[in-house]
Design goal:
23% of the residues lie in helices and 32% in strands. The protein is of the alpha+beta class. It binds adenosine-2'-monophosphate (2AM).
Length: 188
């Protein structure tokens, strides 16, 4: 069965005051379990801290801190947005050296995913969130604070991620560990 994008946490009624938000694709449990095994394999070679299976995701748009009123408006409006459904081939590991991140991602950005990202920013930009200057680099962070980035192993055999919705997520860092709550889902 294909692993459709699905939230790991219940949808909350509204966002509390001053929240840190981002839009993401969220894997279903089967894909999250596969990616967790990738994280364990990568951790054995690179060290660092593996993301918990229920926190694995692919960020489409990071908004940073958002006040309660705008957050509530976003929660309501997200349910009226639509992703362009598509499939992502996760087939490689990459690193962000400065943050000690090891990630999994596609060798090439699928056009439907690029379109979903661009359409999301077409919506967000007029609302006041600046579109990132850098190109979209879709990735699922597997490890943080990895020490041995030059020892990154080859990725396991590719997996397909079929998605049809994205989610608006609140991030609550606690003691250096991210806790995420899905606040809203796009129409599907
Ligand atoms: P990362 O996994 O590459 O660190 C929640 O923090 C999500 O938003 C994570 O996926 C994280 O990406 C991303 N994120 C955090 N800060 C960001 C920033 N300043 N710009 C873009 N994405 C960011």
């Amino acid at each position: 069965m294909p692993a459709f994008s699905r939230s790991a946490a219940p949808v909350a009624a509204a966002a509390p005051a001053g929240v840190r938000l981002f839009f993401a694709l969220w894997p279903g449990p089967a894909l999250a379990a596969t990616l967790a095994s990738w994280a364990a394999q990568a951790q054995a070679a690179c060290g660092g801290r593996a993301m918990r299976p229920d926190t694995l995701h692919l960020t489409l748009a990071f908004l940073g801190a958002v006040d309660a009123e705008r957050a509530a408006a976003l929660v309501a409006a997200t349910a009226r947005q639509r992703a362009r459904p598509g499939s992502i081939t996760l087939d490689r590991y990459g690193t962000f050296a400065r943050q000690g991140i090891v990630w999994a991602g596609p060798a090439e950005v699928p056009p439907a995913l690029q379109h979903t990202h661009d359409a999301l920013w077409d919506w967000l930009e007029p609302l006041g969130w600046p579109r990132p200057a850098q190109a979209f680099k879709p990735h699922v962070t597997l490890l943080r604070r990895a020490a041995r980035l030059d020892g990154t192993p080859a990725a396991p055999p590719p997996v397909q991620w079929q998605y049809r919705r994205y989610v608006l997520v609140q991030s609550r860092p606690r003691e250096g560990v991210a806790h995420y709550q899905v606040l809203a889902r796009s129409a599907g």
